[in-house]
Amino acid sequence: MGKDNQPEYQLGPNIHWYPGHMTRARRKMEEDLRLVDLLAEVVDARIPRSSRNPDIDVMAGDRPRLIILNRVDQADPAMTAQWLVWFKKQGWGVLETDAKQGKGVSQFPAAARAALKDKLQSWRAKGQVGRPIRVMVAGIPNVGKSTFINKLAGRKSAKAGDRPGVTRGKQWVTIDRGLELLDTPGILWPKFEDHITGLHLAFTGAVRDEVIETEELACALLELLQSHYPRALEERYKLAQVSGQSPWELLEQCARKRGMLLSGGVLDTQRMSAVLLDELRGGKLGRLTFEVPDER
Ligand code: G4P
Predict the structure, then answer these.
(1) Which terminus in the chain has less CB density within 10 A, N or C?
(2) Using CA positions, which residue lies closest to atom 13 of ligand 1?
């Protein structure tokens, strides 16, 4: 709990979300949305569900949408392909990017125009030629919004202070002829709708480890890896086979293989948990996606 006994979500370095922040962030998003024709939402391709705040769908109204499926370099390509189809089924445009390397970013203008096809047609029909398309980028912290905006605008460092509800003068960056981008991203808070969402956000490092106990987090990760990516687990920790074991047994095996012992020969599962999470986030387990699209 945070100050005044209100729930506090601690996210990434220096980011604390209190209900007041959420209200301010929401208000700012709603204000900025009024100025734009297209909403581009950045999501983490490893956790495309948990890295979205579904409130954005309400805020966006019937405004055209573009999903920026970012961090594809860290996600399982086969799953990214499935998510691409899923987002398209929602009627939204989708762009796959690795903002860090700048991959896919140059396709943004074309993707934005495609997502706005109907609107552009209706503008043309009304004789509104030369009207610029205005776009804003939004998303929860750590998905890569600033990196994406900087790459798009050809800048080296972010101007955006990534603090909830901070207001500043609006600036527009011309991306391409007739395409303008709001300089600062809309920042949403992650929505902990259930425990799984919290776990997935913690796997990727989007929420601080302290939010969930490290061994619990490691066991949840091992369970997921056991069912979806057993090879990655077996290869990384030189385990013979991972099926039929409890997550705790797997954690102990990993610790044993790494020689992590406390005095008296007790396995140091706490340290192994921290190492597992570090290695996951460092990409040592390969490209992984933790969520499958909903069939409904
Ligand atoms: P935000 O505005 O949504 O909060 O996210 P931001 O752009 O600050 O990015 C958060 C971290 O994610 C940064 O790493 C950034 O480099 C990294 N990142 C962004 N997009 C991608 C991507 O597509 N792939 C990968 N692998 N990483 C990405 P950092 O550790 O904070 O900084 P740095 O060490 O990379 O400079």
Answers:
(1) C
(2) 144
